[in-house]
Amino acid sequence: MPGTDAPAESEKPAAAGTSSTSAAAPADAARPKRRPARFWMVIVALSLLAFITSLDAMILFTALPTITAKLDGSAVYVWIANCFVFAATAVQPLVGQLADILGRKVPTVVCVALFTLGSGIAGGAANPAMFIAGRSIQGIGAGGIYLLIDIIACDLVLLRDRGKWLGIINYGDLASSIASLDVVGNLIFIPSIIAALIGLVTGGVVHPWSSFRHFIARNPGVPSRLFGNRTSAGGYVLMFLSSVLMQTAGYFLPVYFQAVLGTTVMDSGVYFLPFAIGTLFAAAVGGVLMSHLGVYRPIHVAAFALSAVGFGLFTLLGPDTPKVAWAWYELVTVIGLGPTISTVLPAILAGLPQSDVAAATAVFSFIKTFGFVWGVSIPSIIFNGVVDDSVPAAHGLAPTVNFAMWSEVVQVYVAGLKAVWWWGVALSILGVFAVAIEDHLPLSTELETEYGLREGGAGAADKDRPAAVETGSAST
Predict the structure, then answer these.
(1) 3-state secondary structure of 165
(2) pLDDT (mean) for 384-395
(3) Is 267 exposed, middle or buried (0-12, 13-18, 19+ CB in 10 A)?
(4) Is residue 266 part of a domain?
(5) Between 174 and 278, whose confidence is greater?
(6) What CATH number does residue 224 fall under?
(7) Which of 15, 192, 367, 436 could be 476's S-S partner, Cβ–Cβ 3.0 to 4.6 Å?
(8) Rounded to 5 degrees, what are φ and ψ at 198?
(9) 257: which DSSP letter?
(10) Among positive and negative, which fits the CA dihedral 238, 243, 246, 247?
(11) Are 260 and 318 in contact (CB under 8 A)?
(12) What is the pLDDT of residue 201?
């Protein structure tokens, strides 16, 4: 993104005689009416990155069984399914620190390059090991992209407007700076979170749950001050719940389409479009509402309430459910979950200083990605428990049994999925109550940041230049 790592010119402060007028001005007057072309170029670039990474995830959800079969990778299915999330989750705190030290542009370019390289390796994979390696590299790049999209958006727009733009998007010297990098913390944190994720996805599958070990780090890499107020802590809880629910629906709806309705991988992807496209629109609408109303708690309550209704409707899904019905069920669910994508991060930042934006966003992105693992692992345990207890060898029986017997197996899959949907209902209701953790804090209408767009024709960043300040005061 051109120019996003350079300090922007600060605006002149308002004259003393205009301060009272400025204070009385409505919040909408604080926002710039026209934005430069460079701003829109950055927004378009961020939107493309968000679209590409989201498209990649959706494609893999529906095609994973086919890919595993083609590569003869059933023995390492756990790694094929989860290596991407492992890599994306583990690197995000490190990328957040690098974004503060090196600026936003260099980490973004590197992450895009890694994502592209990993995509090429995975796309041309001839065996499971090559595919896992490619997806891991791709995950490192994607993890950084997820985080940097949010950080750059926070650099460019006011706190009150960030939900709107996040929704639209989802449709010292070098030596001293490097010296400030928390190398020890990251060396501890990254292997630790990988170990936790390995235990989570292999527990009860590859190794028994009783085989755990635990170690506690004395100096955690995540600053405790980020959880120092109710609103920020509550926002992290809500983001975790939202990402678990989003991943649960995204992972098990294709299972319903392929295992219960008997669709092809291509048709399953088409049937998933109401959920995928609806998420983007709901995120944009939620951000716009927060920007205009200046509140987030009512949006969060409505979001999780609608999610509970949507997952409740999913419990009605069966082999004879009409297309119109399950399409509407998808839309109800994403109308609930979608707004959390764009409105939770601004709520978290409302209680934190601007200097903590990168660190807070890194933790936000980490928790969101970490929730994706739980959104597959825990529901999978529930689903497999129901299916395996009812039909011990149900998986892969379709080509070998007659129609009558397979109809019975389908009913077992329906029962397993129903248990997953009820898990989603319970988690959504928990989210409604978790909103009470948040306080109502005003969303700032000032933008103070060291990073922004360079003025036209500006050269290299001037580190002595004051931070950009965008307010509603008019200079005279």
Answers:
(1) helix
(2) 65
(3) middle
(4) yes
(5) 278
(6) 1.20.1250.20
(7) 15
(8) -60, -45
(9) I
(10) negative
(11) yes
(12) 66
Q: Return mean pLDDT, the chain.
A: 74
Q: What is the pLDDT of residue 17?
A: 40
Segment holding 300, helix H or strand E: helix 297-314
Q: What is the DSSP letter of 259?
A: I
Number of structural domains in the chain: 1
348 occurs within a structural domain = yes
Name the token pair of 200: 């989570």
How is residue 74 annotated by DSSP? Answer: G
Return the structure tokens found at 95.
């990328």
Top-confidence range, 343-352, 378-387, 411-420? 411-420
- Which structural domain range is residue 137 located in? 32-444
Structure tokens at 218: 């004395």
Q: Is the pTM of this model over 0.70?
A: no
| Distance (Å, whole) CA 88 – CA 366 | 8
Flag whether 24 is in a domain. Answer: no
Alpha carbon separation from 398 to 111, 378, 395 (Å, rounded): 42, 25, 8
* Tokens linked to 393: 């060898």
pLDDT for residue 222: 67
Burial of residue 253, with CB atoms counted within 10 A of its CB: 0-12 exposed, 13-18 middle, 19 or more buried:
buried
pLDDT digits (tens, 9 = 90+) for 40-62: 787 788 778 877 777 776 667 66
In 3D space, the residue among 120, 137, 136, 155 whose CA is nearest the CA of residue 46 turns out to be: 155
User: Strand, coil or helix: what is 263?
Assistant: coil
Q: Is residue 369 classed exposed, middle or buried when 0-12, 13-18 and 19+ CB atoms within 10 A define those classes?
A: buried
Write down the pLDDT at residue 421. 95
The continuous run of DSSP H or E covering 423 comes out as helix 403-434
Helices (H) and strands (E) in the chain, counts: 16, 2
Backbone conformation region of residue 262, classed left if phi is above 0, alpha if psi is from -120 to 50, else beta: left
The whole-number pLDDT of residue 7 equals 44
pLDDT of residue 380: 83
Residue 217 lies in a domain: yes
Q: Taken in order 44, 49, 50, 54, is the CA torsion positive or negative?
A: positive
Structure-model confidence comparison of residues 469 and 97, the more confident one? 97
The model's confidence at residue 66, banded by pLDDT at 50, 70 and 90, is confident
